[in-house]
Queue: 4 jobs
Job 1
Amino acid sequence: MKDLLDGPLVLAGAGKMGGAMLTGWLVSGLPASQVVVQDPGPPPEIAKILADNGISSHSSVDGALQEAPSVLLMAVKPQVMDDVFSPLAKLAGPNTLVLSIAAGKTMAGFERHLPDGTAVVRTIPNTPSAIGRGITVCVANDHVTDKQKQVCDKLLAAIGEVGWVEDEDLIDVSTAVSGSGPAYVFLLAECLAQAGVDAGLSPELARRLADATVSGSGELLRQSDEAPSTLRENVTSPGGTTFAALQVLMANDGLKPLMSKAVKAAADRSRELAG
């Protein structure tokens, strides 16, 4: 990452997600001297990283920049985004890339604060990004260059995988699948453990079994080249115990239609919040 940027990178918001990104950048070789942080009170663990690398955290970065930023990365909560972004937008130069990881804020919402022609990328990461195992889906406006897309790829790779869509409406669908998706997996572990308790296991053992099964299966899926359906079939013997359970989960009123309904509800709500 040493020669990735032509100018400073302003990180607005050094909380859990912004801090995870910053940590990944520094580990990957981004010079600390290129990073300027705007956050009036970063959490202690991030404050230590900043101090260890000689990076100051500012309540406002106005006086800390000698030139327009190469990247203006917005990692603050959506409810304060307008208040934080409006003054920062005045710092954008003709080659500045505005990169947002905030849910529910459209590209138009950023563009209205910026000069015409400013490059904007909207993304939706998910919570496993905090441990470098997430996935972030991105969409770019018409002013983003191929080089700027490559910059986004490398910056976001610090927290996991990266994917792109052409239509901003698909960010809402991505939010419903991957952004909200970790909660669905945690609910699965929760329900699996409770089912074990209902069947007679102790709560402690049921949770251990459920947590290890969900996390281990996820790791197996990550490392395997086979499709989820193939992995499922590999575990399922005709007429066996797994087959019996899947007869329930794969029924016409089972998991598939329920998940489709849940994803649609989340996507609809994402559109409402961004509206």
Job 2
Amino acid sequence: MNDLEWIQRILAHEDTSPVPYNFMFSPPAERIAKEHYGDDLEGALGLPIRMSGPASIKPLYASPAEFGNTVTDEFGVVWSTSDIDRGSPIEPCLRGTSLNDYTFPEPGRTYRFEGLKEWCESQKGHYRILWVGDLWERATFMCGMESILLDVALHPAFVEELLERLAEYILETLRIVLHTCDFEGIAVSDDYGTQNGMIISPSSWRSLVRPSLARIYALAKSHGRTVLHHSCGDIVPIIGDLIDLGLDILHPIQPEAMDVALLKQEFGAHVTLCGGIPTQTLLVQEGPGAVRREVKRLKRTLGQGGGYILEPGITIQADVPAENIFAMVDEARTPRL
């Protein structure tokens, strides 16, 4: 059974051993891991899922040494840069409630896809997922969180138009990769949750976000691709909606925000859950022994019946001690008994 078959069996909810795992590292955590396991982390850790996607002017992690204190993305949003995380959007590109004077970036720009076809070919045998964009999350960057939440209440037609235009950008990106690249699934990054509930009400999400998101899911599914959706926080009220749209992998389930055992009980037969390792408590406050015990418990409980990929509840951050990173990785790679 190669990596591709491994993940396909998990998505089909077949009970397999070992439980598959995935890890994402912030730059400081990645340096620690590479010093211990080697520069080829994906190979050294045997990650069955491999991820890539179209490039951006502003990479996910833009270091001040390379980009200066700020960097502007394709959409015109100004970001702070950071050595430890992705930085923050500090200057929106949209002011007011009209798109008449705004020009959207061209999704087909050559630089976005350079080397992507070759990367897909080099990763055959693994489960290849391409990140194709963000929808509501991108709108919050472009307008600012406070402004767009006011617009949801006061100018919903503007929000709807913005999301539809962003969906077109993502759809064209998806059409290009479907035409040029060989891969198994897409990933959409679109945060809807906080620690204690949703950023946007479920009813507003259904009226404004869901229609555009449905178009993205539908295009991927019509071409036989699976869909991974990334949203941090508590999004329990809309998980059923995402499943109805065709969601395959929900990422990352955060135990600080949702009861992961209840997620398994209520939704586990219909979607693959990815995440579950506490990043705000366990990984930063406990020792390696506790980390190993929790990883083992998650594999035994959430892994039962397939439909589960072990992963931290969010990208491994700079505050996680090295010994806890190693304990988590090593226990994840230990076959379940």
Job 3
Amino acid sequence: MVQDKTEFKKNQDEIQYLAYYDLLTNMPNRRLMMDRLEQTLNSSRRSRSYAAVFFLDLDHFKNLNDTQGHAAGDLLLQEVAKRLKKVVREKDTVSRFGGDEFALILQDFGESKTQAIDSCRLVSAKIFNAMKVPFVLYDNEHNTSVSMGVCLFVGKDLTCNEILRRADIAMYQAKQAGRNGMEFFDEKLQPKLEYRAALAIDMQSATIGNELIPYYQAQVNQNNEVIGAELLLRWLHPRLGMISPAEFIPIAEESNLINSISYFVLQLACAQLRAWQEEESTKEMRLSINISARHFGQTDFVDQIASTLQEYNCPPELLRLELTESLMLKSPDDIAEKMYLLKETGVTLSLDDFGTGYSSLSVLRRFPLDELKIDRSFVQNMLNNKDDAIIIETIIVMANKLGLEVIAEGIETEEQKNFLHKSGCQNQQGFLFSRPSPIEEFEEHLKTLQRSPSVEV
């Protein structure tokens, strides 16, 4: 009997490929990468030569998927894979670890730790340079960056899983440092990252347990009248007490929790605006809320805003959505279209942290904004820094000519208030007028604020 094994061999090869390679990028997958890491670790033990694992994560990759679709995201991953292959040696391994994460295994750095560190820095510089060139995704240019963590090892008693864990910890430290950077693993980082990981787990049940509490901070006009407030979320942790948004919001943004939290805030704001309609003294007050890039990127975001306004029957013109400039710079045509649809619902739009981005003037020209919010970093230094004062005065003049409202945040002294008034800033917000407080305290202080807004409460 004669049997043709050609088809059988072809099927076997395909099964082997599927088991060890990533179909999207044609790179080694996690399984093959772990096998090669084990070989590298054993070789390092024998030769006493340093090796390293680079753990890479694409910055803001979720935003691309949300705004341009998964096809654009897949194309970006393929292009990143090609560039990574070009910057390493033939004997090194570049693998797609999963999602938008890549792992690189680099070996034979020699017995000198200093030399090995220098070699890692050289590789990282090549990677950063490769990522600087814009990616072309379906005829559209897209800029991206990577955060990298590096674990340097020379055999010893480390396991493959421990090496990867250390590289992962270092990568998250690079993200915490502002992204688009590289960090080596440092054992001192571990307690802090374990604390963040614990907070991320606790946040899963925070909204259910009513631990996320809305606080309100007054906004006043040039006549010292309270015109509205900003809703600021606080986390009252059952064991750790009050946790600052500066701590928990970045954690929420790194997970899928930020969408549910943002929707929770939207519901709170609409419910509060509805309640204020029942009193003559508060029925004209507006309420500002911060919108996360991920929440804004949801395909049903505009419908969600419209339906929530209708559900709570609150005046849409009193709800102000604060958007960051960085959000607007990604797929500006799509963002502009969505903003015009939002305007049709009746809400107003504010550009938060104005002056801290890179394309502020183009943002003003392109998008249907109602307000600019001057960042507190300028306000804090404007009396002692001539440049900051000039920037603030320029923003105010420019906004007035464009027919936009201006509000400055972070006002803490009478001198700051007076300077802004003289410069033509209509509205202000800060500790000088009121600290963020729960709704009961906020409403209790409303009359006090209107009588003497310069008294800290």
Job 4
Amino acid sequence: MPTEPLFRSDAYLTETASTVVSVNDRGGIVLDRTVFYASGGGQPGDLGVLIRADGSEIRIATTVYGEDKSEIVHVPAEGQSLPEVGETVTARIDWAVRYPRMRVHTALHLLTVVLPYPVTGGSIGDGEGRLDFDIPDAVDKDEITAKLAEAIAREADVRDSWITDEELLAAPDLVKTMSVKPPMGTGRVRLVEIAGLDLQPCGGTHVRNTREIGTVAVTGIEKKGKQNRRVRIALA
């Protein structure tokens, strides 16, 4: 049974009542609906708790997609009790962890505007992140930081829309990332737009306006190959 991914329609929703659909042989818990983001596209899976009717909590260490990509599996921390199938729980994410990841993710989209080169890899951490670019020449850390600040100061709204798989295939220039395939396969693809600045396919969670990103600094640029530069950023 597919899990309804509530985080796609509202990244600010921190909890929801859910029903346990299944518990797999490794203890992974599948719910009918969830606010927990499942690891993908360089963004880690959410952690948090499932609160049972008696008030006890099951700590969730990470969240991943199941073998059936329509299922989202909540992976309990070691030693946690497991719920019964059919049980109603409240799924609550750790917002203090999620929100900085949202800010970093949106900042990384702006980084692809500042550095308009093919992206060969990337990841999002807690308060920091990085992208790898196919760049033939050296780039200046302070200059990138200044341009990022200018983009953030635009206070641009961040919104999403949907197109079909076929529409995305007909518009390959929308895809900036060479190493991560766009979230295709369900018949439609989510686009994330930073108004007036950027538009690209993405299944991750983002802030509503660039002003929420705050101050960002480029903390390092590493040469990873003849034409590959790894650019690291961090929230102030």
